[in-house]
Specification:
The N terminus is likely disordered. The longest helix has 16 residues. By secondary structure, the protein is an alpha/beta fold. α2 crosses α3. The protein is built from 18 helices and 30 strands. β28 and β29 form a beta hairpin. The protein has a ten-stranded mixed beta sheet with strand order 1-2-3-11-12-7-6-8-9-5, with helices on both faces. Strands 23-24-27-28-29-22-30 form a seven-stranded antiparallel beta sheet. Strands 14-13-15-16-17 form a five-stranded mixed beta sheet, with helices on both faces.
């Protein structure tokens, strides 16, 4: 109905819905053109729309994982499946939902736009006062966090399966971010799941139609109360935030070569995910990089057949291109823009653990930290402990938390944490409450500008000062779940036996003595909430570690993740695969992974 009129006018129009003719008073006010040359409109619909209650039944398995609910598209598109889960998200907010503002957007994968429009109708039926919706349903996960915080919204519904493949045969996901902009904590997601097992009906305004392809504001009367849908420029708020954090003038001179005499040669790969528009606006329009510096910048429902996971396996095109070319930096992002991979010239790989540690060491290169100060650092438990050494030198607190960005939020809100990261290619700061891929690349370019060094030289200098944590992760994807559960139970029983501590293991001429072994648990120092069974951990006397856990981010089966972390103070220039092989062999022996999974090799090595 909104598309009926495209000129500035007001009047009374009739439209046919079913067998009844209804009268609408529509007022269209054309605004100034936005920065992206997209006309925006203000629409006021003076007609009372009715709320419909639809009977439904619970679906099994609507339990959010590490970061929301992820299933195959065919699961989400079952009648009432998405409706049920969205209703439970809204109900979990309790009385705070009435009159609230929510942010809605996603990574552009298959079913994203349809789900966004459905959320508009369900929100209208549940007393939400205002929605901020990304144009075409597009918002990166970091942008959602920024918008929640900037607009003091109750939260946001994010439509993404992150780094999982997209398309009608692949994955979709929905998660809720709370009022601090971060992923909902365990207590909240547990309540969503509880509600999903009891749901009997959901509410929506079936007749509400909205064109989310055009920037503008629409106001509706729903059961006598105003309901506002503002379709927003997906990029503008996030870009402004980055300009506040970094010195774009200095970075532009560095990228263009004005300050060095040679343009920075970069290759930024959005992998056909959500970051495309953000990358073009920041790196091309604001920093003056050449058009050839960015690739795969059009968000596609199936990511153009790419697997949008920024690692050495799935970003092979980027790695091969940088390895063969004369590049200073290469970077890739995942589907929703919160993960990143950094490589230097000739595809020199920066592990996420090292990336976090280097940024921590050079925070003075970023104006945001000059202004706001440096608090503590944190990492997920499986992440190598490189940042711990930087924190110790700088006299800062360092926290070890379970996997999942939600565990960093309380520490940030309490003013005890300003920088954190995960080995799964996530890095970020307290500017928002999500990991942030583009932020990480801008941080690295800032460090390069500040030091005048290449990425490889920055790392080698860092290792010479702190020593090196050799690190790798083996992913065994889509394994049968039951044997994996048996493997974890068997291993836990073995490593928690009293006689395991003090035991020695040898391989490849190296010997490791067990100092500690457990199933990691975490007590939040802010609210004393407890998270248990967060991964099996073996710590050796020399600081080396083996970690094993089942991932909560897959949509089917089980993904087994094996992490190996070995610290060397002197031998810092070795080949990682060679340095880590003895400990890898010991890990496979202790876990009996080949026996339980039937796998002789991992799906992905990072």
């Amino acid at each position: 109905m909104i598309a009926l009129i495209r000129v500035v006018t007001a009047g009374l129009y009739a439209y046919q819905r079913g067998d009844a003719t209804q009268q609408l008073s529509l007022v269209f006010i054309k605004r100034a053109r936005s920065q992206n040359s997209t006309s925006s409109w203000k629409t006021i619909v003076r007609m009372s729309l009715s709320v419909e209650k639809v009977a439904t039944k619970p679906f099994e398995g609507q339990k959010p994982g590490t970061s929301g609910l992820r299933k195959k598209v065919k699961v989400f598109t079952q009648p009432n499946y998405t409706e049920n889960f969205v209703q439970c998200i809204l109900d979990a907010n309790g009385a705070a939902l009435s009159g609230s503002t929510l942010v809605v957007g996603g990574d552009g994968r298959y079913y994203c736009k349809e789900a966004a429009e459905l959320i508009v109708r369900i929100s209208a039926g549940n007393g939400v006062a205002k929605l901020l919706v990304g144009q075409n349903g597009i918002l990166s996960t970091p942008a959602v966090s920024s918008l929640i915080r900037h607009n003091k919204a109750l939260g946001g519904i994010v439509l993404t399966a992150s780094h999982n493949p997209g398309g009608p045969e692949n994955d979709f996901g929905i998660k809720f971010n709370c009022e601090n902009g971060g992923p909902a904590p365990d207590a909240f997601t547990n309540n969503i799941y509880k509600l999903s097992t009891e749901i009997k009906d959901y509410k929506l305004v079936r007749g509400l139609q909205i064109d989310i392809s055009k920037v503008g504001v629409s106001t509706y009367d729903v059961a006598g109360k105003p309901f506002v849908v503002e379709v927003i420029d997906s990029v503008a708020n996030y870009v402004r935030l980055m300009e506040e954090i970094f010195d774009f003038g200095k970075l532009r001179d560095f990228v263009s070569g004005k300050s060095t005499g040679k343009p920075l040669k970069m290759r930024i790969d959005s992998m056909n995910g959500v970051t495309g528009a953000y990358v073009r606006e920041i790196f091309l329009n604001r920093l003056g990089a050449a058009e050839s510096s960015v690739v795969h910048t059009t968000p596609l429902p199936d990511f153009g057949g790419l697997h949008p996971d920024p690692n050495l396996t799935y970003a092979k095109d980027l790695v091969d291109t940088v390895a063969k070319g004369d590049y200073d930096i290469g970077a890739a992002f995942d589907g929703d823009g919160d993960r990143n991979m950094i490589i230097g010239g000739k595809a020199f790989f920066v592990t996420p653990s090292d990336s976090l540690a280097v940024i921590a060491h050079y925070l003075e290169a970023i104006p945001y930290f000059q202004k706001n100060g440096v608090q503590g650092f944190a990492r997920s438990m499986p992440t190598a402990s490189a940042v711990d050494l930087v924190g110790k030198k700088l006299g800062k607190e360092v926290f070890e938390v379970p996997t999942g960005w939600k565990y960093f939020g309380n520490l940030m809100d309490a003013g005890r944490l300003c920088l954190c990261g995960e080995e799964s290619f996530g890095t970020g700061s307290n500017h928002i409450r999500e990991k942030d891929g583009i932020w990480a690349v801008l941080a690295w370019i800032s460090v390069m500008q500040h030091t005048g060094k290449s990425i490889e030289d920055i790392l080698k200098q860092h290792w010479s000062e702190y020593g090196r944590n050799y690190f790798t992760r083996y992913d065994y994807e889509e394994c049968d779940l039951e044997p994996c559960n048996q493997m974890m139970a068997t291993m836990e029983k073995s490593i928690t036996a009293p006689e395991f501590v003090g035991k020695s293991f040898s391989s490849g001429g190296k010997s490791y003595k067990v100092k500690q072994a457990d199933n990691f648990s975490y007590t939040d120092p802010v609210d004393n909430s407890l998270a248990t069974k967060q991964g099996l951990r073996i710590v050796f006397v020399d600081g080396s570690r083996i970690v094993m856990r089942l991932s909560g981010t897959g949509s089917s089966g089980a993904t087994v993740r094996l992490y190996i972390d070995s610290y060397e103070r002197e031998n810092v220039l070795g080949q990682a695969s060679v340095m880590l092989k003895p400990l890898i062999d010991i890990a496979l022996e202790i876990s009996q992974l080949p026996k339980f999974t039937g796998r002789t090799a991992p799906t992905v090595i990072t």
